[in-house]
Every structure is written in structure tokens, then in C-alpha cells.
What does this fold into?
Amino acid sequence: MANDNASGAEPITIKKYANRRLYNTAKSAYVTLEHLAQMVREGQDFVVYDAKTGEDITRSVLTQIIFEEEAKGQNMLPISFLRQLIRLYGDALQGVVPGYLEASMESFTRNQEKLREHILKTFGANPALSNFEAMARSNMEFFENAMRVFSPFGAARATARPKKEAEREEERAAPETELSELKEQLRQMQERLDKLSGQG
It folds into this structure.
């Protein structure tokens, strides 16, 4: 798989016009979101500008590509992930999330070839779950560490509250409960995978 901007060349400029058409200035041709998606897969770097204002709209166009892929049935984003992501908008941890997600995807990208090989070797037993689970556990630890950095006294404050008040707080803290449930599911999955590995 090619790396973004592997040749060191400047990113290709794409202009988006008022009629929503996209123009590839390098090829002097109109393109579609599907063309841009293919460019991403091939490792071609590009930036998208609003043709009228000159505003960089690359982020919104890439988000639109993801939306189109999801709409076609290429579902990669679990509903629980989307809900948790939406909850983090406006949260104190919002600033941590982009770096966390970027680091997670970079780690996944570095390991994807090994992951593909593992899937081929273990297909039929329990394909690739161990690698996915290990990455998920590592990502969860990274996220928890980030949370501790930004709220180091959160746990102490929670234990100092009266029991009834703490229970009411738990009822209002649904996202934290979901995070705990997700961690428990990962723990149970690891136990099952350990048993399968023992049988292998």
C-alpha cells in the first residue's frame, strides 16, 4: 500500500464549485467522491478548496466520503463508537480525541500487513480476533491514561461522595457505564481467546 505523498510532491489540489462538482487541477478534469476515495486508497495526497472562498474543506469532503461508503453498506464504524464520539464533542477531553484516534490508526496501519497474514494463517479457527482484541485493549489503555492526565482527581472525588449521591451520579453518567461495559466485554473476549489458544 502506497504511503500518502510518498514521492514528496505537493498535494494535488481539488476545487469544489458551487454546483458541488469537484475539479482535479492536476488532471484538468472533474472527479467524483469515488475518484477521491480511490486516490486515498492509492496513497495520493490531496487538499480540497472551496473554489469561491478558497477555504480548505478537505476534512468535510473526507467525512463525506466516509458517509458515502457507510451508506453503500461498507459499515466499519460501530454504532457504539459513533455514539461515544458524538458525546465527546464539547467535552473536556475533546482535544485529546484527534491525537488518540490518529495514533490508533497509525498503529493499525503499521500492523495491517501482519494482521492480514495472521488472518490467512488462522482462518477457520477464530479469524484475527486476537489481534483486534489486543489492539482494542492497547487503545483502551491509551485512552484511560489520557483521561487520567486530564482528570487526575476524578476517582478521588467520586469515592468521597456519599453513597446515594454517587449512585445518582452513576445514573447520569451513561457514557462511563458504557465504557465499563466495553472493557468487560473485551476482558471476556480475551478469556475466550486464551482458551482457544490453549486448545491450538
DSSP finds eight helices and four strands in the chain. Residues 152-161 have pLDDT under 50 and may be disordered.
